[in-house]
Amino acid sequence: MKFEAITIKDIAKVLGLSTSTVSRALRDSYEISPETKEKVLAYAREMNYRPNPIALSLKEKRSSSIGVLVAEIANSFFSQVINGIESVAQENGYNVIIAQSKENHAKEVSALHYLASRSVDGIILSVSSETTDFSVIQQMYEKKMPLVFFDRIVDSIQTHKVTVDNFKGAYDATLHLIKNGYKNIACIANAPQLSITSERVNGYKAALEKSKQRFNPANLVYCNHGGLIYEEVEAAMKQLLKQKQKPDAIIGCADKITTNVMRYAQKKRIAIPTDIALIGFSNLDLTDLLSPSLSVVRQPAGEMGKMAAELLIKMIESKRPVSEFQHAVLPAEIFQRSSSAAKKI
Amino acid sequence: MKFEAITIKDIAKVLGLSTSTVSRALRDSYEISPETKEKVLAYAREMNYRPNPIALSLKEKRSSSIGVLVAEIANSFFSQVINGIESVAQENGYNVIIAQSKENHAKEVSALHYLASRSVDGIILSVSSETTDFSVIQQMYEKKMPLVFFDRIVDSIQTHKVTVDNFKGAYDATLHLIKNGYKNIACIANAPQLSITSERVNGYKAALEKSKQRFNPANLVYCNHGGLIYEEVEAAMKQLLKQKQKPDAIIGCADKITTNVMRYAQKKRIAIPTDIALIGFSNLDLTDLLSPSLSVVRQPAGEMGKMAAELLIKMIESKRPVSEFQHAVLPAEIFQRSSSAAKKI
DNA sequence: TTTATTTACGCAAACGATACCGGGAATGAT
DNA sequence: ATCATTCCCGGTATCGTTTGCGTAAATAAA
Prior knowledge:
The structure is a homodimer. Chain A is of the alpha/beta class. The first copy, chain A, has helices at about 10-15, 20-25, 35-45, 55-60, 75-90, 105-115, 135-140, 165-180, 195-210, 230-240, 255-265, 300-315, and strands spanning about 65-70, 95-100, 120-125, 145-150, 160-165, 185-190, 220, 250, 275-280, 295-300, 325-330, 335.
């Protein structure tokens, strides 16, 4: 069952020409007579000829495809990023091959090998929350595979990176809670090894410090799967709430963490923001319709995807090895809604 | 800037063998001596040799990649479907190339050409809400490109199809509203030319008829962009609410329609379900946390994607032309929540 | 010892497109 | 008439891999 396309050979045979002549006529070479050109072009158009990209890839040693590795496609942030990548890739004649790690390092490694074996021209990636060993990525980097990191970056590898200002996002969110009267703010963070985690946690701590609130280590809990598993968020909440001084506000450092905190609160009939306020990183479209409407730090995901794709394609198409790398830092947007409304005393 | 992989030629040169011997050794052919095999395999393992898939594609006339065409990646239903497709594809050594139509027919056509020019071995697709002209799809079908439809199918093209029981989903949802005491139920549907639209609308009508409620044509409104644009849902709501006999319940036939109805109600301070009840098709994970919690008809999206991918791969790998096609119809799940709670009289 | 058979490998073509190299024919110059 | 130039076009190698065919050497059978 195949979808047989017409080749340059077929055209050559029908018109009694050589394949090289046909090839040149199609590429509008000057050394082909106008009549021959016209004949070839007319026939090619008639037969709807399209060059075989696979043959081209083999000859040119490039596949015109880029790999994208994310934790999970069915996650609004990542799907919005992919959306952006896809649009830029399509414009530039690249296709996008997607792989997911499911926050699992073994899957991440196999996905990277998979993408490499598929001869992608470059890879855009955000590491899994489990990853502490970057050796495979490092190897690909050393073998000159063009890489662009976004969101969860690896500091030790010198290449283009696209993130939001995670520090400022968390800082502003924490400050917003403080301004609204909250005095014992907890933070539920993603896996500690992630770049975004330390940036966000540092923003949280800095805001506390700046406001003369003491940072209490017991108020900082990590979720190693980024909230992907409800139970880890549940455990985090239980741990926070068993303290004598229960926190009166929470900042969630990942989409699923934030929403799972809401789910937990609903189950346990904890009122937001009366019993505990909530703000968190999220890229869901519906946060304004939640009960209560959810305050969020939102990343410009589509924009990040576009930018990452542009940087990658530029790197792929660069003649000389790229040595100056950009770290694009986009602003995060804060939406203040009911879940972090001013504390009633 | 290239990522140069080791080839069979490199191995042959180093070991002083011919490429054919190396190739056969790697494929464990019987006509290679055990010693030679061992030497080749050891070296290949050491150098982390992987066959070049592009060269293979050229020779075998297959690319081991499948195309997926959806309206929009950043849509929970479609991203869940892609998730399912990706997992099955990966298991079977296929990669997934994604394209989106953005509910636009011109983009859909160009995306299909794009996928074909990329030599995908088959395509899984859900047509755009704008599409009324299936000629391009028909052409690909006639050229023996393996196709599998899901969700929004094309009846006139004989191939595998995967959908949920849209009729029953809408029927049950409508009946649920009726049982809860609603007497003037409106339906906001997707574009009328879509298969899912007529199936869902028929389910809605059948439930009304079975319950001896008269179907009122003024209570059925279509959204040509599937609710992708807020304004069209707003227009639909205005049209429904300007009637003398305002509807007391709404069934939304697409994810974005349903959520945009909620958004409209919130803006206009229309209480759900007191002023108007709501149930709708949606695959969002958070519908239980909305205000009010939203009753939904949910499609088993991941399952649909897996099934579509399995059917497609089976078709691609079939020796003889496939002539018997399956139409897999999965059950839709109904979640009854507050937005369609029993009417208070 | 001669012949037949097996073993183990190399050669070359093929997949589709490109590009370098080269060459025949027509024209112009001397 | 001879040589050079220009115009058009064909031959062929190449990318990495597989595979049918051919064959030398080794072994087995006669």
